[in-house]
Amino acid sequence: MSPPRTAHPYIPSSAPETQEAMLDKLGIASTDELFTSIPERLRVAGELALPPALPSETELRRYFSETLAGNTSTAEHLSFLGGGCWGHAVPAVCDEIAGRGEFTSAFQGLGGASTSGSYQALFEYQSLMSELVGLDVTPLPAYDWAWAASTGLLMAARATRRGRVLVADTAGGERRRQIAARMPSRIELEWVAHDPGSGAVDLADLEARVEGAAAFYVETPSYLGYLEPELDAIREITREAGCLLIMGVDPTSLGLVRDPGDVGADMACGDLQPLGHHQMYGGNAAGFLSLRFDDTLLGELPNIYLVAVPTVRAGEHDYFWGNFESTSYATRGASDDVIGCGSTMAGITAATYLSLMGSTGMAELGEALGTRVSYLADRLGSLVGVDTARLSGAPFKELVVDFSGTGRSPAAVNAGLLERGIFGGIPLEEDFPSLPGCALFSVTEQHTSGDIDRLADALKEVLA
After folding, report:
1. Which residue in 344, 338, 350, 351 sits closest to 147, CA to CA?
2. pLDDT (tens digit per residue) in 344-362
3. What pTM, to 2 d.p., does this model score?
4. Rg of the chain's alpha carbons, rounded to an integer?
5. Assign residue 139 a region: left if phi > 0, alpha if psi is -120 to 50, beta otherwise?
6. Going from the N-terminus, what domains does the chain have, and what CATH number goes with each?
7. Residue 306 in contact with residue 122, Cβ under 8 Å?
């Protein structure tokens, strides 16, 4: 493969003279020699079937603008989509901070001066998240919620030297698949059933499985939107069996309900998306993981966390990596985990959001979400054939709506709503076979009573 004869504006070091100098320095004739360790049978023969390059920024911008114009966003339609990515309000200052060049251009590496501002902002993120969840240590953000949850399970298996972990089956289907994919063959994964009437954890099934398990992972609210009513019983069952408790939480609920530390959880995790990030498909996903202060657990923590250290000037602090030798960044190929700096910006945005909201703001947010989901249940439950009490648990901001009595599938209902400028709920049967005909509808503080009335009126037309 010969070096390209022209430089591509979006490929570093693609200028022909630069590539030729690099090849000469390496003492090779072409880039093909860099891949001799890869067997021929694993290489693509010939050129890739790619369209011609777009050499100018103007052409590239036009191409993507025309492509993206085919989408209809949740800003254009009234949306009741959630399921892990919600349309919460984003204060303008969050976008302002997230766009600061000092943060977006500073590599989160071992350097000092160029990253000190980011380090301090991320230290504040760690402190604010630890206070929110009631636990002692919060490292830098993980890739997403599922990654954080599976990291906690792997930590528990190593810390307890047990080869089996438990996960409540009311976690989201995608999250369950991601967790299962990350468990190595030496760790057995079992699903703990839920009560089909309430959506809560089946305590009898948990008791039957907990002996010898390293950890139990449970979400509250669950993917189905319901708060777990028996957290104290779950903590007691797991504690007696020497099983660590990992709680998955929606951070917007923690101004209203008990935090994981108050429950006695060993670890907590969740998604940072509700904390100052816009609802979008990809791009701003990040998860958090927090844990109680315990030498054994800290020794198994693969994530980087920042510590404040005094300087030679009294009253001043600098920030640096703690427990570096135990992190996946340091151990690399010998580690069970992989980390990177791609999600750290989400932590700075989350810290901005939490510092603006404060404890009072988070409590008001939780109350607003509870009020809206109650109104949603009342309005939709008044429609003929629609059941909003399919599960008897207490919903937080998402609600299982059963359309079985209408004779319409959730897909058909959503098609009718889309014609009226509304995104409906997420069909549940594929990931939750026990809920045929059901969909998950989500509300946030941005929904008004008028929005919910509009949904109810549109559903009445669709179901007529």
Report:
1. 338
2. 889 999 999 999 999 999 9
3. 0.88
4. 25
5. beta
6. 78-88+359-463 (3.90.1150.10), 92-354 (3.40.640.10)
7. yes
